[in-house]
Amino acid sequence: MFNLFLAVFPEIFLINATFILLIHGVVFSTSKKDDYPPLVSNVGWLGLLSVLITMLLLAAGAPLLTIAHFFWNNFFRRDNLTYFCQILLLLSTAGTISMCFDFFEQERFDAFEFIVLILLSTCSMLFMISAYDLIAMYLAIELQSLCFYVIAASKRESEFSTEAGLKYLILGAFPSGILLFGCSMIYGSTGATHFDQLAKILTGYEITGARSSGIFMGILSIAVGFLFKITAVPFHMRAPDIYEGSPTPVTAFLSIAPKISLSANMSRVSIYGSYGATLQQIFFFCSIASMILGALAAMAQTKVKRLLAYSSIGHVGYICIGFSCGTIEGIQSLLIGIFIYALMTIDAFAIVLALRQTRVKYIADLGALAKTNPILAITFSITMLSYAGIPPLAGFCSKFYLFFAALGCGAYFLASVGVVTSVIGCYYYIRLVKRMFFDRPRTLILYEPMDRDKSLLLAITSSFITLFFLYPSPLFSVTHQMALSSYL
Amino acid sequence: MKDFPIKYLTLNMIIFLLGIWGILLNRRNILIMLMSIELMLLAVNLNFLVFSVSLDDMMGQLFALLVLTVAAAESAIGLAILVITFR
């Protein structure tokens, strides 16, 4: 019985750490004796430490995966897919928290609850990745979304931020309702909520003829709800406004962490739970639309954060290619795409945070960055070229493998649309690089050097991006193992 | 007795669609949008209860109870964000 708790020890530790940090923050920040100190850096460093310890507990607990399998069969399942996805999630969260400290100092952002909410949403994302039942999936998605609504509106003085929080609430609660409707339809038509039972019931239901409209509506609604939350295209409505209006660390979180956990969960539902042509057609259509919109709409943008929002919508389109082919290579390419996307996005947002000194919002402000700060310009260029998919950077490897998987399962149209939009998208990425290196703005903006944490983070991620092509096989074999375990 | 759930499912579907239309048509009035979100979640709750009774299964009622809690938390957060927006 003790194995039950040992296997879920990382989550238990993280939840306890969250509550202890909350109590610590409340007690000490309201104490008159210490003159009401703002505890955000304190709680931030302790939060970062607890995320790293959780990752160590998770990594060291690998032998326990098989022992507690029996007990947790009801709501969660831990296997290779969840193991590596959770490690990736915790690494990204640690990276994004370490980017925030400078932001807290400069903006005089005093609320330590920001870090507590981030830790709480990380817990829920750990649960979401290992969720194996519709109930667990919905509760984890809701907990993560609720935490994000609050932190998106956390800068109370700026009405930009509170409006972004309100829009995010509406845009996030609506798909939760649709997702829940889908869950209820599937539950009503099949009587089962656990993915094992659903897999057995839904295996050949399209081929054998008796198509229950309840199941069809249920699967459709679940897919639509997921696509809303991952901001894929017909459902991306306010996403660029939200990304632009929220404080920049929150935008960084929004772009990275939910995409990782939702992709892992969605791959469980769509490949294991309900394998069939319905979901494949929806993902097909959404990925084409996302790629096209991501390439075209970003050309007209003049603000940096909106550009990054549209480029992340485009990248979600590429990642949905991995869902559209129902093969193992599809899932493997999806996981490689998510991994490289997470690293590139951490890189991009670290740079945007570093350039925050004089409120750089517009792309034109980046002019002549190469003269004032050449190494930062080179790093930014590497990140943008990796987004564009220029070989030999890491972004090219992920796109190449995604198109390869699409061709391997016969989705020729998808791969060709992907290649064409990739080429079109190169335009605005290279325009950024040109503006940094060759433009001559009217006033030269001088940026202060960035702090140690961000420079470390930038060094690690950009060196990974440049040197990935030399030795890509560890990532490939790891993701192959992950993809295999989602088929078992 | 064979079409026992259909009447109730139709009612719940109508309430759910009213909730969706309420969000899509009421962009000006945030309070009505929040109420429509509540309507959606509660319509799905009723759906779960109807299915639980007709399937004679307990998981529907369990799910409905958990969803009720989440809907309450969500509307609390929505109202809090509304308050700071209009301050």
Automatic annotation (TrEMBL), chain A:
Cellular component terms (Gene Ontology): membrane; plastid
Entry's localization field: Membrane
Gene that specifies this protein: nad2
Principal place of residence: membrane
Residue ranges crossing the lipid bilayer per the database entry: 12-31, 43-69, 81-104, 111-129, 166-187, 207-230, 282-300, 307-328, 334-355, 375-394, 400-430, 456-478
UniProt topology in membrane: Multi-pass membrane protein
Ranges for domain NADH:quinone oxidoreductase/Mrp antiporter transmembrane: 131-425
Keyword Oxidoreductase in record: no
GO molecular function, one term: NADH dehydrogenase (ubiquinone) activity
The species this protein was found in: Amborella trichopoda
Domain of life: Eukaryota
Keywords: Membrane, Mitochondrion, NAD, Translocase, Transmembrane, Transmembrane helix, Transport
Any matching Pfam family: Proton_antipo_M
InterPro entries: NADH-Q_OxRdtase_suN/2, ND/Mrp_TM
Protein name in UniProt: NADH dehydrogenase subunit 2
Gene Ontology BP terms: ATP synthesis coupled electron transport
Keyword Membrane among UniProt keywords: yes
Automatic annotation (TrEMBL), chain B:
Localisation: Membrane
Gene Ontology cellular-component terms listed: membrane; plastid
Keyword NADP: no
InterPro entries: NADH_UbQ_OxRdtase_chain4L/K, NUOK/Mnh_C1-like
Keywords of the record: Membrane, Mitochondrion, NAD, Translocase, Transmembrane, Transmembrane helix, Transport
Pfam families: Oxidored_q2 (PF00420)
Any GO MF annotation of the entry: oxidoreductase activity, acting on NAD(P)H
Any GO BP: ATP synthesis coupled electron transport
Residues spanning the membrane: 6-24, 31-50, 62-86
Domain of life of the organism encoding this protein: Eukaryota
Entry annotated with the keyword Membrane: yes
Main location: membrane
Membrane topology: Multi-pass membrane protein
Family: Belongs to the complex I subunit 4L family.
Entry protein name: NADH-ubiquinone oxidoreductase chain 4L
Gene that encodes it: nad4L
